[in-house]
Amino acid sequence: MHARRKGYLCFTDFKTHNETIIHTALRILLGEDQDMSLSPEWFDDSADRLKKWDEEGLSLKEAEKALWEIHSTAYPIATEMAEYILENWTARRVAMLGQESRRILFEIWDNHLS
Question: How far is residue 24's CA from residue 69's CA, in Å, rounded to a whole number?
Fold first, then answer.
């Protein structure tokens, strides 16, 4: 049995963790993780991103996309997002994230922000 997820073919009989590993491996194989190191300017722009999220809001889709970067070489994108969510979102808003995105979020909170 298979299903399409995030544009890739994955097998639904795998546990969610294995789907994450497969998703990451496919991104690497397809070259999506090449040259993903973040520039010094990205780090310098952090305050501007936070201000934008405060003023304009942050969509669930944008938050989930950033959280999934924990599995790439651009993982600071995920940790920045997780910290912003920790400081600014309610439990109700966090519950609106997809199951795997919530798992990633809690993993980041436990392993990177504690």
Answer: 9
